[in-house]
Structure formats: C-alpha cells, structure tokens
Amino acid sequence: MSKKKSKKDDYRDVIKNQVLEAFISNSNRTMNYKQVSKLLAISDKKTREIVNRAIDNLVDNGSLLVLNRGKYKINPVLLKAASSAQTLEGIVDMKQTGKAYVILDSEMEDVFIAASNTERALDGDRVKIVLFPRRKSRKTEGRIVEVVQRARTQFVGRVQKGTRISYFIADNVQMPMDIMVPNDLLKNARNGEKVIVKLTDWPEYAKNPIGEVVEVLGMPGNNEVEMKSILAGIDYPLSFPDEVLESIKNIPEKIPQEEIKKRKDFRDILTITIDPQDAKDFDDAISFKELGNKTYEVGIHIADVSHYVTEGSLIDEEAYARATSVYLVDRTVPMLPEKISNGLCSLRPNEDKLCFSAVFKLNENAKILDEWFGRTVVRSDRRYDYDEVQEIIEGGEGDNKEMILMLDSLAKKLREERMKRGSINFESVEVKFLLDENAKPVDVYVVENKDSNRLIEDFMLLANRRVANLFSAQNNGGKEKISVYRIHDEPNQEKLAQFSAFVTKLGYGIKTGSRNILVKSFNKLFEDTKGKGEQNMIETIAIRTMSKAQYSTDNIGHYGLGFSHYTHFTAPIRRYPDLMTHRLLQLYLDKAEWKNKEDLENKCKHSSIMEIKAAEAERSSVKYKQAEYLADKIGHQFDGIISGVSKWGLFVEIQENKCEGMVSVKRMLDDFYQLDEDNYQMVGMRHGKVYRLGDRVKIKVRNVDLFRKQMDFDLVIEKW
Predict the structure, then answer these.
(1) What is the C-alpha separation between 205 and 210, in angstroms, rounded?
(2) What class is the 154-220 domain?
(3) Any idea which architecture 632-717 has in CATH?
(4) What is the pLDDT of residues 39-79, one digit of tens each?
(5) Would you say 576 and 551 are in contact if contact means Cβ atoms under 8 Å apart?
(6) Can you say how many angstroms the Cα of residue 72 is from the centroid of all Cα atoms in its chain?
(7) Which of 92, 202, 584, 681 can bridge 209 by disulfide, Cβ–Cβ 3.0-4.6 Å?
C-alpha cells in the first residue's frame, strides 16, 4: 500500500518545481543552493535546506549536471526539451492571492499557475504556457512563458501618496499587486482620489509594475466618480470623440422622399412600441393587421441603423469599439450618440422612421403561413410601457385592446411551441432602484417578468430565428451563408454532474440523459422551485452550469433556446452584432455575397468580449448601489436566504432587495463551525447546528464597505 503524501511532501514538491524553473530560466548561470535560494527570495534556513535537497534530488534523477566547485547548471538536453515543449494558449483568470488559472483555447481543463510562475501576466491576458509533468490526483499545473496580449493596460483605483513614489491600489481585486507611480506622473492627484492609471513598464526583476496617471476622476463616494470608475474599469469610453460627433452633425432629420419610395410603406398599419417606462431609445415596434379567415399579419420593425451608420465610417468604428450599450443603475451609456439612438433611430410615436422589418402571416395557432424581410418606413401610433400592456392583458381597459390581446395570444402559442421543441425556461431576476435627485437609492425592488415582457420577447425571438434561418444551408442550395450567429454550446458535463448532485441534496432531481430529457428535467425543476426561497439561487447556479452564449460565424445552434439557427437582429441601436446582421441580410437580399469570414469572426469575438465586460459593469453598478442603500442601515434587520457557503462564512441574500453580504464564520460565536463542502452547509462541531444553502435566516447589517462594494452581516436568529 502506498503511503499518503503529507503537506510537507506537497511543499517539497512545490519547492522542487520552483528550483527546476529557476535553472531553466537562468540556463547560462551556474549556481549553488544559496544562489538559487536568493533568486527565489527564500531566506529562512529550513526552506534553504529543502532547496539544497531538491537540487540533490534533481541531480540524482539526471536532471542537472554537477559542475566544478559544487555549482550546478541545467542539463543542456533537458533545456532543449523544455524549449521545444509544446506551448498552449489561453486566458488568465487571476485570483486575489496572485495565483491564477489559465482557461485554454482547447477543450483541456483549466491549468493552475502558482503565483511564482505567472511571469507578470494579469487577469484576462492572453498567454502562452508550458505544462509541468502531471502528478497523480493533482490538477494540471503549468508556467506562463509569454504574455501574448494584454487584456488591458489601464486600471481604475485609488492613489496612496508617498514621498517620492506613490502606490496605486486597483478597484479590481483580481489585480494582485499595486502599481508604483512616480510622484511627477500623478497629474496632481490627491491622496485617496480615484484615478485611471496606465501601465508603462514592468522591469524583469521588479515585483510591482510602473505606471502613470492619465485621468483624475475624483474622490470615492461621489456618484459620478463611482459610475465613471466602473466604466473605466472595463475600458469603456467615457465620452464620444469630438470628431465622431462632428461627423454626424449633417445627417438630415427629415427622411428624403426618394428614400421612402425605395421601401415598403407600413405607415397606415396600426403600429405600437412596448418598452420599460424609463426607456429613451425605442428600437423595435410591432404592427398588426387582421387579414380575415383567422389569419393575421404581424410586422416586427427594427430601427434601420445601417442606413445612418455606414460601414467604415467614424461613427461605425466607434460603435464597433464599444460593441454594446452599457446599462448602469442610474444611466444608459449608449453605443451610438444620442442623435442616432434617441433621435433618428428611435421609433417615437407619430414620427416617420426607417426600419428593417420581418413580417409574418400567421394563423390563429401562430403557425407561419408566409414571411417577408426588407427595408420599410413605419409610423408608431402609440407608445406603451410594460405595465400598461400588462393591465390590458389582465382584463383592464386601454387603447387597441383587441390588438394587444391577440398579440398576447399569438405570443403564448409561439412560446408553447418553443417549449415543446426543447427551449429551457430560464427566468432572470432584475433588481431596480428608486433614486433621489442625487442618484442615491431610496428603495430597491425586484422586477417581475410578466406576460407583457414575454409578448415582446417571443416576437423578437421569432424574428431572430427566422432571419437566421434565411442564412441556413437548407435555404441556400445546401451551402450555409457566412453570417453572424448567436450560438450556445451544450453544457459542460462535469458542471452538469455537480449541479445534479447539488439539487439532489436540496431534495430535487435532474435527469442528464438525452437533451430532451435534460431540458424537461430543467423546466420541471424551475416549475417546482417557483416561489420558493431557493428559486433564485437554483436558477442562478443552473445558468452558471450552462455554456456562455456568444457570437460566431460558425453555427452550432442555440442549446438553451433549442434553435438550430439563431442570430441577433432586433437591437442594432444597442448591439453591434445586430447591425452586422442587418448589413449581411440586405447584402443577401440583393443577391450579393460576403466573402471575408475571418474579418467577421474577429468582430464576433470582440463583440462577445465587450458583452461580458458590459455585464460586469452592470453588475458592479448594482452591487455599488446595493451597498450604498444599506450604508445608512447599519443595525437594521432583514429576512434573508443563505445563497452561498464557504470556509470564510455564509453568504446571505436579503429577500426584499437581493442585497448579498457575508456572515463571517468568526462572528458565529455560539459554536465552532466547519465547512461541509460536499453538502453545501456549515456544521457546528459542539451542538450540531447546521446552516445549509437555501436556509432562511434573519440578519443584521453590521458593516458596509462602499469602496469594495462589500456588505457584512451578523446572524440574528439561526433559522425558522
């Protein structure tokens, strides 16, 4: 029977790897154990002895050659093997401690990188790595050998002033070290102010990079400063360049008659928009017409941004760089300037507007009898918000009631058919804030997704699906058109198995057989948990189990929706891929061809990256406003649900406002608690008290750190 390795053995293995790396990295030097220890910044006697033994061990294994006077040099044969070793590429996921994981482009599992082997890489960087020999029952480990591309060179954080050198402390906890800033490059920033710093140098043997302040944002806690900090943190432009704004000044407000004559005219057909109450840009409208014999014409009209934003223009380049609008709590930061997004392309009532439309002839069961796609001119007759439409759906009175009820009926049949075909019924929770005149939150509430929201969603899904279908091989003589697809891969089987084990321990079940069985199982789970305390938690973890949807020219279908072909067509004011889709669709309607697939794929990748960054900024602004909301409620009590369990303590989400904070295990003084990771619970060692994921608890707000957007709670009562 083999002896189980101790923690000491693990530590010796780490040191041995570091010693070998030191010799490989310094292949021209001969060194003794003292010099190697100095190189590795090891000063204590015991660890230096481990270094000495590691060298002996490497010599015994034929890895090193002994040179004169007790010094060593890397074996040239080993060096050649190391230099010719296959490198792999991936993206760095940096942790606060300085260690990292590299998410590989290949299907291999993530590779662990010790803090000493990150080679000055930072979070999000594209890097090349080499793998260490795999040890039994250990995660794959490696070393970063090259930073291929920096994810960012500008960072947001606070200045800590020194006498000659100041230090920059990044807001992002995934930046594991501070940046040194010479005082003459501070741009007069005061101690504690928020700034944007550009990384300018990182000497080979320096622990910290060097940078300079490029913009002073102001003191933390100011709403404008914090929102700008969030945008700058994702490298999103804080304003439109003057030359871009100048380039669109001369676009005429009035549509020329010659342009109207080129288009199908829908201005005499009843048309409405349905949007959130606070919306400013209305990029989609729906027209409705009864055709007789229980058939209906439904037009889905999308603002024709491509008419105003021509490919390769200054405004197009700026829109591509942004790739998406960003929705912070107190503002929308648009992809396009207001003249276009809130003016020319906004489908405001009683104004003629240019659109790109998908028009469907449907029977009473929402079966498609005919369809048409092309450029149109429309005139919205009425602007609705979701609440107005919901009131009509629920039996209230209102303008165009018959039209709205028929649209609702058709949408529900489209949804029913979609669910039958294998669409997963994910429901996301949206947190909204009521802000005062200073943008301070005075209330937080959860927005429920109702039939009025789903009505718009189902018709937008129909348009996106049918436009994508036009590009399919089936409709193009067996050859798929080059296009922008919204793809969603099947879930990772390992994550799926973990999720299945997780819900089983909560008393639910997931069957992971065929896709149809899995989808039905997911939808039943969501139905069973509806209205229960664990609903949001289970749905959130279920979404994390899934692959991320992204843009690509290589169509693999959309797993979550159950569509073989899907694209984004319905929001070109706020998403660049939709603008690309409009251009491609018109090209193909004109019987022309797009040939540069590589260029389109690069734009898809950029759009996917910017979508993730925008979501990160939106979450960050919500987290900040939640912390700000609780900042003056220290000592207040709330009902909550345990939303996470870790060795550090319990994460608790307040039910009424979705604010999430931590109850530190150090503050749980009634017992000595240990983490039972397999069962998602914390167990008291003396009295056997158990705090489990999904349990209801009452908490008291203990502390709020606005800078870190962190909320600390204390338990009031254990559970009921």
Answers:
(1) 12
(2) mainly beta
(3) Beta Barrel (2.40)
(4) 888 888 888 888 888 887 777 655 555 566 668 777 665 55
(5) no
(6) 48
(7) 202
